[in-house]
Specification:
Tumour Suppressor Smad4; 6-stranded antiparallel β-sheet; Arc Repressor Mutant, subunit A; 336 residues; 33% strand; Rossmann fold; alpha+beta
């Protein structure tokens, strides 16, 4: 079996994974170091399994760079927490590999969204595409079409277009429905519309979703999986990507238990301050960060970020630990 390890910046994790993989007989290992370059089909030639380090953040980054077909992917995390996309703790890799070699697994195909902004094709997304003005608390005006037909003209804080796997992420926080992962649909969620008839909309995943005539006092941005931001001038188009994400799932894996975990988090978020919700979602999408990085990513005042972190730590959703690079610096990560 040829296994390709997609290496993140976490050197300790890479070393642990590499050591675990080298202990397994009959396994050929190659390492692809993380970069901003898109993955090509040649990079994956003759590869039977891709192991992605870095938890959920590493998984999102991998699939963003992937516009071609991929072998099945196994996400690995390193902590006492569990991810929503990454399934295996680094210490359990030998057991996981033996199960794969014995055929005790299945491959789950997860729909991805292709994204086109002002005629330019962007990287595909796994969870959601969001349209928001660059300055918060500012209305955005837009027209929504599905398969070329006018659906509505709206003024709202923004718009979220979600896949089934992303329906329990940002979309759910904004009032969207929970969608089972094998459903062949996309979810369109207006955020705080001025028109109470603008409700979450479910469309077939063969649909072409078009957002045009975008107007706001400030520039508007398309946000990909809560991370990369791209300025949009007039047009956003989304449709099903040709290649789904193919995820390794082991016997005993339950989509229902994962869904229950997400629902519990969503319920608890209802009573959270908006700033705490934003910090929590940023850590979920982006991975562990220090306060300085959180301030930059959320664009919240330093004091607001501190209060949000204190709230999340007290509730048990976030933990604080010392940075490996500088023990004086504190790192914050998800603890769910």
């Amino acid at each position: 079996m040829h296994v390709m390890l997609v290496a993140s910046e976490q050197k300790s994790m890479i070393s642990s994974i590499e050591k675990a993989l080298n202990s397994i007989e009959g396994l050929r290992l190659s390492i692809l170091h993380d970069s901003d370059k898109p993955l090509r089909q040649e990079d994956l030639k003759h590869v039977d399994l891709v192991i992605v380090s870095g938890g959920d953040k590493g998984m999102l980054q991998y699939f963003h760079k992937l516009a071609v077909d991929s072998p099945p992917v196994l996400g690995v995390y390193e902590s006492d927490t569990t991810g929503f996309l990454a399934q295996v703790d680094v210490k359990d890799i030998p057991t996981a590999l033996r199960m794969i070699m014995d055929g005790k697994y299945k491959v789950e195909e997860v729909t991805r969204l292709a994204v086109n902004v002002d005629g330019k094709e962007l990287e595909p997304v796994l969870n959601d595409v969001a349209l928001f003005p660059s300055k918060s608390a500012t209305l955005t005006e837009y027209k929504l079409k599905v398969n070329g037909e006018d659906i509505w003209h709206d003024k709202s804080d923004g718009l979220i277009i979600s896949t089934p796997i992303g329906s329990t992420a940002y979309s759910l926080s904004a009032g969207g429905p929970i969608v089972l992962r094998n459903a062949r649909v996309f979810v369109i969620v207006p955020v705080n519309s001025m028109d109470i008839t603008r409700r979450p909309l479910i469309v077939n995943d063969d649909s072409s979703i078009e957002v045009s005539e975008i107007i706001s006092r400030y520039k508007c941005e398309v946000i990909l999986d809560g991370g990369n931001r791209v300025v949009v001038k007039n047009m956003l188009r989304c449709y099903k990507h040709r290649y789904p994400a193919r995820l390794i799932r082991f016997e005993g894996y339950s989509a229902a238990s994962l869904l229950a975990k997400k629902v519990k988090l969503a319920e608890d978020m209802l009573g959270m301050p908006p700033s705490a919700k934003l910090v929590l979602k940023t850590l979920e999408y982006e991975g562990a960060m220090n306060q300085r990085e959180l301030i930059a990513r959320t664009m919240l005042p330093a004091r607001t970020v501190r209060l949000a972190l204190n709230h999340l730590i007290k509730k048990g959703y976030v933990r604080r630990k010392a940075s490996l690079r500088d023990a004086r610096e504190k790192i914050y990560e998800l603890k769910i």
